[in-house]
Amino acid sequence: MNTNPHLRASKTAVLLLNLGTPSAPTAKAVRAYLKEFLSDPRVVEIPRVIWWFILNGIILPIRSGASAKKYASIWLPKLGSPLMHYSRLQAKELAEVFADQGHTVLIDLAMRYGEPSTEQALVSLKEQGMERLLLLPLYPQYSATTSASSFDEVFRVLKTWRDQPELRLVKHYHDHPAYIQALRNQVLSVWEKDGRPDFAAGDRFVMSFHGLPKRNLMKGDPYHCECLKTGRLLGESLGLEPGEYLVTFQSRFGRAEWLKPYTAPTIEKLAKEGCKRIDIFCPGFPADCLETLEEIAMEAREIFIEHGGRDYRYIPCLNSNPEWIDALADIAEQHLLGWSLGTESADELTLRNQRAEAAKIHAV
After folding, report:
1. 3 pLDDT more than 70
2. Are 13 and 106 in contact (CB under 8 A)?
3. Cα(37)–Cα(21) distance, rounded to whole angstroms?
4. Domain of 13?
5. Do residues 14 and 149 both lie within one domain?
6. Same structural domain for residues 21 and 83?
7. CATH number at residue 148
8. In whole numbers, what is the pLDDT of the chain averaged over residues?
9. Which of 18, 160, 271, 358 has its CB surrounded by the most CB atoms within 10 Å?
10. Do residues 225 and 290 share a domain?
11. Same domain for 243 and 339?
């Protein structure tokens, strides 16, 4: 049996990149996850020495237990973390789309923090014959805190390899027609079932994106602009007027100014002004997670009702919606142009191996 790695069939791979999740809704697991996440200099741009004391002396001891309770509130019975569950489903169903098209493309998932780690995924793909690799972040809007950090980790791992694969990456797809269409139809499917908001009566459609410190924008991060464009394109695709929808930013952390308007204060303000119904959607999150299921579907609902609102409707993320999987495939295929999406036949591989062996004999 031939064990020469240079004489095996070469394959194309797509690696989905996501943020990560604790392995369990416990203080210990959450602490380990938060420590890795918040130790990333792409995420927290504070001098390392100062931040080390803040993180280990204040944040981790206090926040780990509180966050664990929040994770427990959204943990799926028998399935675990929603983010992990839906991310794995997306990878599985994307592989099925390629297979149905007659392609042989390796598909895997890597989490920037936690498991499956980037290194684990890359090693697994390499062992399966990966020679060409497309990085496809599950972050539609580019940010140095997410996409760039995930790319950094891939580069760090590949830096240790002697034989590296060809490499391509998808920077963003915040305005990709297939992505916008999937978002549109996700919203419409809910409205067709539960009824469309009465915008003339003051109902509002809110699109909440994850926030970032304002200084990231001022330093040149394009995330804010890309979120606004996604919001505008989705609003237009739904036939909404600018005043009928709002783009807001959630998950503010610390005392520094973050991207505005903030989601929670905006919801409170709408309720106080007499808005009776809000439909809220998180287009920047392709999979439901703590930030959508707990912060938006639960906490924000309480704020709205407490301040006079009546009807609060959370629209689930794209998750494993078939249109979203097709959009992922469309995005991937555009970046795979020119690469083989198949594998050598047994006869072709045998012939190549025979030629290589003959060349070795002649060389001796």
Report:
1. no
2. yes
3. 10
4. 9-25+75-172+322-346
5. yes
6. yes
7. 3.40.50.1400
8. 93
9. 18
10. yes
11. no
- Digit-coded pLDDT (tens) for 151-182: 999 999 999 999 999 999 999 999 999 999 99
82, 58, 88: which is closest to 70 by C-alpha?
82
Please check the confidence at residue 358 and state whether its pLDDT lies above 70: no
**Torsion, Cα of 94, 97, 101, 104 (10° steps):** 40
| Helix (H/G/I), strand (E/B), else coil: 91 | helix
Asked whether residue 34 is domain-assigned, the answer is no
Residue 349 pLDDT grade (very low, low, confident, very high; cuts 50, 70, 90): low
Q: How many domains would you assign to the chain?
A: 2
If asked whether residues 83 and 230 sit together in one domain, one would say no
CA distances, 180 to each of 98, 123, 318, 351 (Å): 21, 33, 11, 46
Total Cβ atoms within 10 A of residue 360: 10
Q: Are residues 335 and 261 in the same domain?
A: no
Q: Secondary structure of the chain: what % helix, strand, coil (to 5)?
A: 50, 15, 30
Q: Is 87 exposed, middle or buried (0-12, 13-18, 19+ CB in 10 A)?
A: buried
Alpha carbons 295 and 308: distance in angstroms, whole number? 19
Is residue 344's pLDDT more than 70? no
- Residue 291 assigned as binding residue: yes
Spatial contact of 89 and 96, defined as CB atoms under 8 Å apart: no
State the residue for tokens 């027609």.
Answer: 177
Give a yes or no: residue 56 inside a domain: no
Task: Write phi, then psi, for 110 (nearest 5 degrees).
Answer: -130, 140
Smallest Cα–Cα separation from 341: which of 107, 90, 91?
107
Q: Are 237 and 186 in contact (CB under 8 A)?
A: no
176 is in an annotated binding site: no
- Structure tokens given for 357: 């062996």
What tens digit of pLDDT does each residue of 84-118 get? 999 999 999 999 999 999 999 999 999 999 999 99
- Cβ neighbors of 291 (< 8 A, separation 6 or more) are 210, 250, 251, 282, 285
Are 221 and 280 members of one domain? Answer: yes
Q: Which residue has the higher pLDDT, 353 or 104?
A: 104
